[in-house]
Here is the input.
Amino acid sequence: MTTPTSGARQRVLSGMQPSGDSLHLGNYLGALVHWVRMQDEYEAIYFIPDLHAITVPQEPGELAERTRRTAAQYIAGGVDVDKCTLFVQSHVPEHAQLGWVLNCITGFGEASRMTQFKDKSLKHGADSASVGLFTYPILQAADILLYQPEGVPVGEDQRQHVELSRDLAQRFNSRFGEAFVVPKPFIQKESAKIYDLQNPTAKMSKSAGSPAGLINLMDNPKVTAKRIKSAVTDTETEIRFDKEAKPGISNLLTIYSMLTGKSIDEIVGDFHGKMYGHLKTELADVVVAHLDPIRTRAEELLGDPAELDLLLARGAEKARSIASATLTEVYSKVGFLPPLGGAR
Ligand code: ATP
Ligand code: LTN
Here is the structure.
């Protein structure tokens, strides 16, 4: 194996698709804050999977802009390009190259069992689903295996894809000789799940039916405050945490707790005898105070796209130095004739 984790720190890798103009609070609390915490402890690699984004139709001009906006939000949210590697997937051609090799060792039935394909193809109409959407998890395996990470921090919904990358790593290693570290899913705790403000039993999601249920990092503070104040609750008046009976209030308490670091019990105590309106007004202040500096910083970064592109180019260069070593080893093990001069 050419590129095991260097030094004492374990390597982790993760990505979030540039599928919207803004990340939402679920992406932030469920993924980004963990990434930021991990970059001190681990050798972290984060990227923007734009190749994955085109598995469903994208407006070309919009995709490029959303890729920059996603990068700006990662950085504004605390991803530090001096501590980790941050890059755009399409800048590192080895992803598609390894993806092809892995396609050729994946069974059709095995790929057919991926539940995200079933869900997403139903949503977009099974007949119009692309072959790219079908092979999406195999490209994801390539994203992971190229960098030899020990861990892949993702939400529960991505566990099956990380399991596939483990299976493919083991299969390749036993068929062709050791080339890959077998990665583990690092799944964040259930408590990190944030729900839609209008439909608090469904997870907050970019592809939700209505934007009214979303708290977006890039929204104007007035919009954010209004959405929180209009959050769906229940007909009781007591503020307490009960996910089954009071999903709306429980979601607001979770958000409050995660942004302030206070325990749910402490918050419930503080709001004893108060009305839902009090909780919503205070929470709106907490959310705006937390997100506004992130939005402002992201806008500053987007104001200088050349500088942002430079940061991403440097990240891609660091990423390629790892990815190309893995790919060279894989190509050689598969039996591809090396090109004259050795360069791929
Ligand atoms: P889409 O609606 O396009 O599927 P999404 O908003 O659900 O997108 P993803 O791009 O699938 O988000 O996920 C990016 C990361 O954010 C993943 O690690 C996922 O687990 C996390 N995440 C997404 N939504 C939530 C949520 N509501 N609560 C906690 N974490 C979330
Ligand atoms: N499928 C993931 C995004 C993703 C990813 C990856 C995550 C693409 N490649 C590699 C971790 C590692 C999603 O939709 N959240």
